[in-house]
């Protein structure tokens, strides 16, 4: 707003001076200097970055009526306006335009918040995304944001921003946060012809809740034990669970039935941490959830893993070897379990590697193999990323999914190519 | 008389010769005392066929008796803009190091035991970029007096104390006149010459000597990296609070 007032004032001054015949070269020079000074002062305080790119995927499957390709244009941008030394506005937007799937034509604001930093605490209000967790492939602790299913549903890092108010108090080696999530976000799904829409019936993104979309409260404590190179966090959550179950709803007007997500209340206790020993990073995530819903069992989740890095294996290349195990255990057998929620990581072993070529293009290969020990469901993937001419990035990925034995399809292969311009 | 003269000459020669450790201490003293610094740096990566790639970064450092603390923020290339590393160095144990990935808003502790890993794909390793405190090395014998590119230098040999170092020995050239570092030859674990770092564009800021440019050449893969300080300020009043994990997400 200040920007518009300043420009309007300057323009008015010029017009008035011109109209009165008193405009001079000195006046013009001073005005130009003021405008330039104004823009440079604003410019110094604004940081931005982003990318625009295309992605195209070829999908091989035996699912009737599903498309075998998916292409889209993607735009992402982050902006930060530090208008005082300790106050800032942050925004992050994402836009996607799919050539076939009209559900995947959307614009989302994932971050739009104001943050005021004080010496020992800070205060945040607005829409934001957060990351909680320690594991590489899947984070049981990452419960704050709803996942964006319109993007790749296997990409657990693609999230929908949540409206929240947060207060964080900083101590020497630790911090304590109180976060109030004000609203539960709806989760839209790709259209029926997409292979990533696994539902047998129509889906309505309207969210059904136990109570009238009450706030969810998080109390988070994070600390480090430097002597042992340990970082850890403990979280207590009271409010809506991150996982939701499906309910059948029939429209009164059209009498058409569709599936809707139902959000239920829980008390959840989460802990995650990492420890470094030599060239190895050890990690764990643990959570216990007490459900307030009669249909959902109380459940515990746990994961342990390690990442061992071998440096300079050949010509400066580094390789990180990753092994992780995930478990989901319920405490009331007749109630909903992990499979009821479509959780892939309920009794899974994941093995992977990250090869950093350390070349001038920062090329990297990431590969992983996830096996469900119970039903033999398997997911294999390999991704290659490289930078071209400093401003462009190319990514190629392959994914193979072998579903559980009683699944409606036999396999799903996808090859995706992404090319983007970064600014 | 001849005997007295010979004894005097030997004594004078002994007085002039310097132990390698003394040279290292004096060289260290020339660059110590900056308290804290803030620098804008440019790193040019050059591969064997001459192709170049530029990275810009901002580095803030806090001098400490038991090791420095530093935060590096990458400003370019655009896809890694905002990526930060926070390092707490320790003379007696492994450093603490965290990486912040802005796209995921994730702070990740990284294993920093092996110092020989490449820093951002460059020919610099993490131990080359880190504090070069003389106490991190073992020196032996007297420094040789040699000429290096027309500059009279002390040449000495040092061995990194850390077993996780990527080097078995380093040959160091220090200007005799002002004790400023001129060149280091790094020898790998097979005792073969791996890299040479040439230090230049030294300048004095508030009585403290600062290096302005380091050219690192890898003899085994013909790649090189040039690190240039585009802007360098010292005694900028930074405090330990600005090297807390909190700064990574700001």
Notes on the protein architecture:
The complex is a heterodimer of chains A (423) and B (250). In chain A, strand 21 and strand 22 form a beta hairpin. The longest helix of chain A has 21 residues, at 25-45. Chain A contains two helices and 23 strands. Residues 1-22 of chain A have low confidence and may be disordered. The two termini of chain A are 26 Å apart. In chain A, the strands form three sheets. Chain A has an 18-stranded antiparallel beta barrel. Chain A has 423 residues and is mainly beta. Helix content of chain A is 9%, strand content 55%. Chain B has three helices and 16 strands. Chain B is 12% helix and 43% strand. Chain B is mainly beta. Chain B starts with a helix and ends in a 16-residue tail after the last strand.
Question: What is the 3D shape of chain B?
Answer: globular
Give the H and E element order of chain A.
Answer: HHEEEEEEEEEEEEEEEEEEEEEEE
The stretches of 5 or more residues of chain A where confidence is low (pLDDT under 50) are: 1-22
Share of helix among residues of chain A?
Answer: under 10%
- Mean pLDDT across all residues of chain B, rounded? 90
Indicate the percent of residues in helices of chain B.
10-25%
Note the gap between the termini of chain A. Answer: 26 Å
- Quaternary state reads heterodimer
Q: Could you tell me the number of beta strands of chain A?
A: 23
Number of helices of chain B: 3
- Helical segment tally of chain A? 2
Radius of gyration of chain B: 20 Å
How much of the sequence lies in strands of chain B comes to 35-45%
Query: Radius of gyration of chain A over alpha carbons?
Result: 25 Å
Tell me the span between the first and last alpha carbons of chain B: 75 Å
- Major β-sheet profile of chain B: 14 strands, antiparallel
Average predicted confidence as pLDDT of chain A: 88
Tell me what portion of residues of chain A adopts beta-strand conformation: over 45%
Structural class of chain B: mainly beta
Structural class of chain A: mainly beta
């Amino acid at each position: 707003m200040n920007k518009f007032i300043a420009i309007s004032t300057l323009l008015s001054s010029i017009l008035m001076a011109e109209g009165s015949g008193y405009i001079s070269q000195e006046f013009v020079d001073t005005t130009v200097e003021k405008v330039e000074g104004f823009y440079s002062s604003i410019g110094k305080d604004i940081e931005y970055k982003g990318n625009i790119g295309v992605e195209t995927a070829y999908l091989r499957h035996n699912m009737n009526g599903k498309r075998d390709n998916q292409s889209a244009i993607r735009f992402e941008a982050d902006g930060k306006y530090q208008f005082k030394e300790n106050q800032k506005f942050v925004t992050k937007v994402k836009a996607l335009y799919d050539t076939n799937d009209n559900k995947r034509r959307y614009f989302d604001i994932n971050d739009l918040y104001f943050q005021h930093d004080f010496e020992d605490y800070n205060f945040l209000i607005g829409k934001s995304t957060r990351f909680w967790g320690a594991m590489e492939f899947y984070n049981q602790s990452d419960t704050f944001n709803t996942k964006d299913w319109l993007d790749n549903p296997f990409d657990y890092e693609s999230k929908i921003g949540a409206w929240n108010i947060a207060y964080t108090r900083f101590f020497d080696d630790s911090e304590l946060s109180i976060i109030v999530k004000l609203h539960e976000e709806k989760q839209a799904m790709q259209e029926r012809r997409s292979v990533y829409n696994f539902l047998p019936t129509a889906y309505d993104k309207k969210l059904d809740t136990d109570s009238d979309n009450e706030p969810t409260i998080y109390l988070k404590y994070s600390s480090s034990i430097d002597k042992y190179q340990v970082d850890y966090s403990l979280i207590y959550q009271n409010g809506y669970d991150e996982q939701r179950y499906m309910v059948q709803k029939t429209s009164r007007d059209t009498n058409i039935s569709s599936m809707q997500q139902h959000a239920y209340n829980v008390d959840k206790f989460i802990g995650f941490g990492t420890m470094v020993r030599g060239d190895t990073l050890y990690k764990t995530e643990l959570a216990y959830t007490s459900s307030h819903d009669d249909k959902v069992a109380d459940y515990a989740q746990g994961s342990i893993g390690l990442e061992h890095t071998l440096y300079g294996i050949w010509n400066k290349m580094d390789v990180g070897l990753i092994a992780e195990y995930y478990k989901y255990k319920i405490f009331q057998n007749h109630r909903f379990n992990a499979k009821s929620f479509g959780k892939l990581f309920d009794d899974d072993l994941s093995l992977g590697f990250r090869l950093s070529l350390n070349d001038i293009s920062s090329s990297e290969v990431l590969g992983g193999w996830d096996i469900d020990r119970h039903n033999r469901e398997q997911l294999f993937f390999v991704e290659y990323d490289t930078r071209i001419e400093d401003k462009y990035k190319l990514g190629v990925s392959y994914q193979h999914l072998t579903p559980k034995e009683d699944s409606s399809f036999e396999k799903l292969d996808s090859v995706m190519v992404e090319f983007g311009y970064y600014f | 008389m001849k005997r007295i003269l010979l004894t005097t000459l030997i004594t004078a020669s002994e007085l002039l010769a310097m132990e390698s450790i003394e040279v290292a201490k004096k060289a260290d003293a020339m660059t110590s005392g900056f308290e804290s610094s803030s620098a804008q740096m440019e790193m040019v990566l050059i591969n064997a066929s001459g192709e170049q790639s530029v990275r810009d970064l901002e580095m803030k450092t806090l001098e400490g008796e038991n090791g420095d603390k530093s935060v590096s923020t990458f400003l370019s290339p655009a896809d890694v803009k905002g990526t930060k590393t926070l390092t707490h160095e320790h003379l007696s144990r492994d450093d603490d190091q965290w990486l912040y990935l802005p796209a995921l808003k994730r702070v990740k502790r990284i294993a920093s035991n092996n110092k020989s890993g490449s820093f951002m794909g460059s020919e610099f390793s993490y131990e080359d970029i880190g504090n070069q405190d003389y106490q991190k090395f073992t020196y032996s014998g007297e420094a040789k007096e040699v000429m290096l590119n027309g500059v009279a230098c002390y040449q000495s040999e040092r061995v990194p104390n850390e077993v996780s170092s990527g080097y078995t020995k380093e040959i160091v050239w220090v200007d005799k006149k002002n004790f400023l570092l001129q060149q280091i030859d790094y020898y790998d674990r097979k005792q073969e010459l791996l890299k040479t770092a040439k230090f230049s564009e030294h300048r004095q800021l508030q009585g403290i000597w600062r290096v302005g440019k380091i050219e690192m050449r890898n003899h085994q893969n013909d790649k090189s990296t040039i690190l240039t300080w585009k802007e360098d300020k010292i005694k900028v009043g930074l405090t330990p609070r600005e090297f807390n994990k909190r700064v990574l997400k700001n």
